[in-house]
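Fold it.
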Amino acid sequence: MKQTILSISGKPGLYILKSRGKANLIVEKVDETHKRMPVFASDSVTSLNDIAMYTNADDVPLTKILADLYKVENGAEVSINYKKCSSKELRDHFAKVLPDFDQDRVHDSDIKKLYQWYNILVKNGITDFENNTEASAEENEQEG
């Protein structure tokens, strides 16, 4: 992803990092509103580039999973109703994307969150998932 996409604990949706201040970050909501707001050191901020999912071998970066999901769905939004489908349907669909995911450590809520984020990104035209051009580790730790 060319932009740094962030998840902020306690706030729905995804955000794009726009600017950095002395004690905060300026982020823009990834939706039709493009609302900008400050995020402070007290907020728990995580870059999607720093998230991985458990497999039976090594952890797989979320950006690779998003890219694989994009291929499985042919560039469209998720084809199943992940909010209402059964756990088996959800896990069977996710197995097409990440066949060796750890059945014990990856919860249904993790898959649903991934699908929700994927749909947000696809709706807003952010589909270059594996092109990581910005370092994001320093965004997680802010000094206030």
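Confidence is low (pLDDT under 50) at residues 132-144.
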